[in-house]
């Protein structure tokens, strides 16, 4: 069996303290989750697909704030077998399961987020604004395929902010950046804006506020994300057009009030009982 497959499925041992910290702070950054060899192997495949599938080719000054933030390519796993191996990693899926305390996780969707050189900042936001899901047991794995020093725009977290309700109904925009930033400062929520080493992976709740700075380097910031949800998650009636769009695109055939078990939402990891 190839080394990369072994590394994608082996157990990463979490401590009770790490699990407690994740649930308290709304996120956690874990060192040495994936090896440099594994990341190099899959970075080649993911970068190839990003370049193949990208539709944004305008000059940076011609883009809006969202388009400046990153190249965003979703559900790459459905079009490339190597990427499918990566996102179906039981190693990563088990981490997500244990952090949330669920019986397992299924795929919501994957997403490459490549921030180009001179790419702009990513405004403060929460992910679950976009998701028509019945509970808060969602987590995103943010996986750098290359090291992410400060000049490349690492993900920043508002520590403990998954508990606040203000700003959950804001789409990513200049307004969300200004209003959420002001509220977080007034509420005295500290921010973790530390860089990422190669092999370091963060996990954050769907309602944890986060942002990223601009990429002032000359290198592409290459990030792959996997969005996990409770394997028993049910579809909720969409609350906004973005949630309706997510239902149409990422959960075809799912029914309101029923477990989301479409072909695009397979179980990635489940506990054996």
Automatic annotation (TrEMBL):
Keywords: Dioxygenase, Oxidoreductase
UniProt keyword Cell membrane, yes or no: no
Necessary cofactors: Fe(2+)
Pfam family, one: PhyH
Entry annotated with the keyword Flavoprotein: no
MF GO annotations: 2-oxoglutarate-dependent dioxygenase activity; iron ion binding
Protein name, entry field: Phytanoyl-CoA dioxygenase family protein
Organism: Pelagicoccus enzymogenes
